[in-house]
Amino acid sequence: MGRKKVLAVVHTVTYGKRLLDVLSLLEADFRVQVVFTAPPHAFGDDVPAFLARLGSVVLPWDQVTRMSFDLALAAGPRGVEHIDAPLITLPHGANYLKRVADGTGAGVAGLRRQDLVPGGRLPAAVGVPHRAELRALERACPEALPLARVLGDPVYDRITASLPLRAAYRRALGIGAGQELVVAVSTWGAQSSFGRFDALLPRLIGELPQARFRTALLVHPNVWSGHGAYQVRSWLARCGRLGIALVPPEADWRGVLIAADWIIGDHGSVTLYGTLTGAPMLLATSPEAEINPASPAAALAAHAPTLSPTHPLADQLDYAAAAYRAEDYAAISSRITSEPGRFNRNMRRLMYELLGIGELAHEPVTVPLPEPPPLTTWAPGHGEVPA
Fold first, then answer.
1. Residue 79 pLDDT greater than 80, yes or no
2. Using CA atoms, how far apart are residues 212 and 347, in angstroms rounded to an integer?
3. Pair 184, 324 in one domain
4. Would you give the DSSP letter of residue 242?
5. Which pTM value belongs to this model?
6. Domain check: are 256 and 307 in the same one?
7. Are residues 27 and 174 in the same domain?
8. pLDDT band, residue 382 (cuts 50/70/90)
9. Is position 101 within any domain?
10. Contact 173/256 with Cβ under 8 angstroms?
11. Do both 247 and 308 map to the same domain?
């Protein structure tokens, strides 16, 4: 019997990272061959290098659209109607957080009709993280509701499984005794915290004593792609020279997030995943017009303290720690998934069901995250080329 052909559709680095968690469920199955493709996308410039680092078989998009596959996986909708395969669509971040109004229509990103039925073609399955999304799905696209599968969230599960290793991650990052790690997080877009980094960065540099604080910046891969890695590093070069780490888009940010003592974030997925870690938060921005009011991001925006432009930053971090209530953040994080710890089981069952072959005879284990490299690895100055 020939091998089953599985196609991973990688529009952006963010989408690709999400699919890697899924594809790990096919490991050690010699009956399955996974290949990748990169459709055209505005933020897809870094995808070829991302796929090259994997050492994966990459098929040109124009060739893929003339082939057939036994299964396809995509975390974004663009062009997938041209793929001849049973298609599973997945969200690429935590839940469905953002409202959008662009040339393709207004609504909640990931829950618009054009996201769910791209090109008017129904996928084989629509994976959602939480059963609460079924009501939104029914309103937005009733014909997609019978295809919905409540799968859970792979990043939620990986972070949860890795929380006991927090001390090991901190040692690996080089956080010394008595030092505290501040992680500044940004999604992409004009209303993201990156759009206000010109105000935040001087405070990170000038107001946090280096003897006590270490700082890392987690910037969405779309920022890197949209502006170019050279430009992002150029803007943040002084931060690197002063010891602030700039985590590159290809790195696994999740261990850094777990190691954080404080998170300064916005309305993006990484900030929301931070509610799992026990780190107190400050929100640098939370634009109401861009947040899905039914999402956990809206609950976080209503609960977390907002960064003040006038009070000392260190005092605000201490205030956030004093005001932190674990039960409040647990209530928010519980809205990310209604299948905690069960994504691997649910997703693997769905994939093999569509492939038409039996699952391997072992429980799909959620593997803890690997230790990150030292923060000093991610602090090049302007003009330096990272190794």
1. yes
2. 43
3. yes
4. T
5. 0.94
6. yes
7. no
8. very low
9. yes
10. yes
11. yes
What is the domain extent for residue 90?
A: 4-155+338-355
* Nearest C-alpha neighbor of 110 from the set 149, 145, 83, 140: 140
Please indicate, yes or no, if residue 386 is contained in any of the structural domains. no
Q: What is the number of domains present in the chain?
A: 2
Q: What is the DSSP string of 298-362?
A: HHHHHHSPBPPSSS-HHHHHHHHHHH--HHHHHHHHTTT-SSTT-HHHHHHHHHHHHHTSPPPSS
Q: How many angstroms separate the Cα of 326 from the Cα of each of 168, 330, 332?
A: 22, 6, 10
Residue 231, classed as helix, strand or coil, is: helix
Alpha helices per DSSP H over the chain? 13-23, 47-54, 61-64, 113-116, 133-140, 154-162, 166-173, 197-206, 221-227, 229-235, 237-241, 254-259, 269-273, 296-303, 313-323, 326-333, 343-355
Q: Quick one: how far is CA 378 from the chain centroid?
A: 19
Q: Which residue has the higher pLDDT, 210 or 63?
A: 63
Please state, in angstroms and rounded to a whole number, the distance separating the CA atoms of residues 97 and 298: 8
216-235 pLDDT, tens per residue? 999 999 999 999 999 999 99
Kind of pairing, strands 105-108 and 99-102?
antiparallel
Rounded CA separation 381/132 (Å): 45
The reply to whether 248 and 299 lie within a common domain is yes
Same domain, 51 and 187: no
Closest CA to 42 of 216, 188, 181, 251: 188
Same domain for 312 and 274, yes or no, is yes
**383 within some domain:** no
How far apart, in whole angstroms, are the C-alpha atoms of residue 108 and residue 98?
Answer: 6
Task: Tell me the one-letter amino acid at 238.
Answer: R
87 is a domain residue = yes
Find the helix or strand (DSSP H, E) in which 265 lies. Answer: strand 262-265
